[in-house]
Design goal:
The protein contains three helices and no strands. The protein has helices at about 5-35, 45-60, 65-85. About 5% of the residues are buried.
Length: about 100
Amino acid sequence: MRFSLQQIQSFLLTALFSFTLPLLLIGSLLGGLTVVHWLPGLTSGSYQAFSFVMDVLAAFGDGQALNGSFVIAAAFGFVGGLFYACTPYHISDSV
């Protein structure tokens, strides 16, 4: 089976998007919890949620939340690439 340049580019683009999406979601979640922390009456709840998210990320990152974010993003990128590579249907120009 031969791959065209467009298929390789599409595969890499899929893997890149699958890698960056979890990073954006984690950043938005932490940013949203930080903004909620400033609202009166929601300080303790948002602090607990922020702490929980950081603990989960630290568990995946061997004690470092940033490493945990990258581990999760790498797993998503790998799975997204596998989903693209294992699809039986690809549009080809030769048909």
